[in-house]
TrEMBL record:
Signal sequence, start to end: 1-18
This protein's name: DUF3887 domain-containing protein
Entry keyword set: Signal
Tagged with keyword Signal: yes
Entries under InterPro entries matching the protein: DUF3887
Length: 125
Protein backbone atom coordinates (compact mmCIF):
# COMPACT_ATOMS: atom_id res chain seq x y z
CA UNK A 1 0.00 0.00 0.00
CA UNK A 2 2.79 2.44 0.93
CA UNK A 3 4.55 1.62 -2.33
CA UNK A 4 1.39 2.41 -4.29
CA UNK A 5 0.95 5.75 -2.53
CA UNK A 6 4.63 6.54 -3.08
CA UNK A 7 4.36 5.77 -6.80
CA UNK A 8 1.20 7.87 -7.12
CA UNK A 9 3.02 10.75 -5.42
CA UNK A 10 5.84 10.48 -7.92
CA UNK A 11 3.43 10.58 -10.85
CA UNK A 12 1.71 13.66 -9.41
CA UNK A 13 5.02 15.42 -8.88
CA UNK A 14 6.24 14.58 -12.37
CA UNK A 15 3.01 16.12 -13.64
CA UNK A 16 3.94 19.31 -11.83
CA UNK A 17 7.06 19.66 -13.94
CA UNK A 18 4.88 19.79 -17.03
CA UNK A 19 2.45 22.30 -15.51
CA UNK A 20 4.96 24.83 -14.23
CA UNK A 21 4.13 27.87 -12.18
CA UNK A 22 3.97 31.52 -13.07
CA UNK A 23 3.57 32.79 -9.51
CA UNK A 24 6.65 34.98 -9.25
CA UNK A 25 6.44 35.42 -5.47
CA UNK A 26 6.44 31.64 -4.93
CA UNK A 27 9.32 31.23 -7.36
CA UNK A 28 11.35 33.98 -5.67
CA UNK A 29 10.81 32.49 -2.23
CA UNK A 30 11.09 28.73 -2.77
CA UNK A 31 13.42 28.19 -5.73
CA UNK A 32 16.48 29.67 -3.91
CA UNK A 33 15.63 27.57 -0.83
CA UNK A 34 15.47 24.41 -2.92
CA UNK A 35 18.64 25.30 -4.82
CA UNK A 36 20.44 25.72 -1.49
CA UNK A 37 19.26 22.26 -0.40
CA UNK A 38 20.65 20.76 -3.62
CA UNK A 39 23.96 22.57 -3.13
CA UNK A 40 24.18 21.21 0.42
CA UNK A 41 23.46 17.70 -0.85
CA UNK A 42 26.13 18.12 -3.55
CA UNK A 43 28.60 19.13 -0.84
CA UNK A 44 27.63 16.18 1.38
CA UNK A 45 26.29 18.53 4.09
CA UNK A 46 23.54 16.11 5.11
CA UNK A 47 23.35 17.34 8.70
CA UNK A 48 22.49 20.85 7.50
CA UNK A 49 19.74 19.49 5.27
CA UNK A 50 18.47 17.24 8.07
CA UNK A 51 18.09 20.24 10.39
CA UNK A 52 15.71 21.80 7.84
CA UNK A 53 13.42 18.73 7.90
CA UNK A 54 10.04 18.67 9.60
CA UNK A 55 9.51 15.96 12.23
CA UNK A 56 8.03 13.48 9.76
CA UNK A 57 11.05 13.77 7.46
CA UNK A 58 13.46 13.50 10.38
CA UNK A 59 11.86 10.18 11.29
CA UNK A 60 11.61 8.95 7.70
CA UNK A 61 15.10 9.93 6.51
CA UNK A 62 17.81 9.94 9.19
CA UNK A 63 21.18 11.50 8.37
CA UNK A 64 22.74 8.04 8.04
CA UNK A 65 20.37 7.14 5.20
CA UNK A 66 20.94 10.46 3.46
CA UNK A 67 24.52 9.32 2.91
CA UNK A 68 23.15 6.92 0.29
CA UNK A 69 22.57 9.95 -1.94
CA UNK A 70 26.33 10.36 -2.27
CA UNK A 71 26.56 7.51 -4.78
CA UNK A 72 23.73 8.90 -6.89
CA UNK A 73 25.15 12.41 -6.89
CA UNK A 74 28.72 11.26 -7.62
CA UNK A 75 27.45 9.15 -10.54
CA UNK A 76 25.93 12.34 -11.99
CA UNK A 77 29.34 13.98 -12.28
CA UNK A 78 30.22 17.58 -11.53
CA UNK A 79 27.34 19.96 -10.85
CA UNK A 80 27.02 22.55 -13.61
CA UNK A 81 23.80 24.54 -13.22
CA UNK A 82 20.09 24.51 -12.56
CA UNK A 83 18.22 24.18 -15.83
CA UNK A 84 14.51 24.41 -15.03
CA UNK A 85 12.38 25.04 -11.97
CA UNK A 86 8.73 25.11 -11.04
CA UNK A 87 6.83 25.78 -7.83
CA UNK A 88 3.29 24.65 -7.10
CA UNK A 89 1.19 25.02 -3.98
CA UNK A 90 -0.44 21.67 -3.32
CA UNK A 91 -2.47 20.77 -0.21
CA UNK A 92 -0.69 23.37 1.91
CA UNK A 93 2.78 22.40 0.71
CA UNK A 94 5.03 24.27 -1.69
CA UNK A 95 6.50 21.75 -4.11
CA UNK A 96 9.64 22.78 -5.96
CA UNK A 97 10.86 20.73 -8.90
CA UNK A 98 14.40 21.52 -10.03
CA UNK A 99 16.29 20.08 -12.96
CA UNK A 100 19.99 20.09 -12.09
CA UNK A 101 22.54 19.65 -14.86
CA UNK A 102 25.62 17.60 -14.08
CA UNK A 103 28.51 16.63 -16.35
CA UNK A 104 27.37 12.99 -16.75
CA UNK A 105 23.60 13.03 -16.27
CA UNK A 106 20.89 15.40 -15.11
CA UNK A 107 18.91 14.94 -11.89
CA UNK A 108 15.41 16.05 -11.00
CA UNK A 109 14.97 17.15 -7.39
CA UNK A 110 11.52 17.47 -5.89
CA UNK A 111 11.57 19.31 -2.58
CA UNK A 112 8.42 20.12 -0.64
CA UNK A 113 8.20 22.80 2.02
CA UNK A 114 5.49 23.10 4.67
CA UNK A 115 3.98 26.35 5.90
CA UNK A 116 6.86 26.73 8.38
CA UNK A 117 9.36 26.52 5.49
CA UNK A 118 10.61 23.15 6.74
CA UNK A 119 11.42 20.42 4.25
CA UNK A 120 8.45 18.06 4.21
CA UNK A 121 9.52 15.99 1.20
CA UNK A 122 12.69 15.21 -0.72
CA UNK A 123 12.97 13.09 -3.84
CA UNK A 124 15.91 12.72 -6.23
CA UNK A 125 15.50 11.12 -9.62
Amino acid sequence: MKKTIFLLSIFLLVGLVACGSNDTSLMEKYVPKAEEVVKLLNDGSYEEVYHQFDETMKNALPVEQMGQLKTVIEKSGEFETFDKSTVEEQDGFYVVVLVAKYSNEDRVYTISFNDHDEIAGLYVR
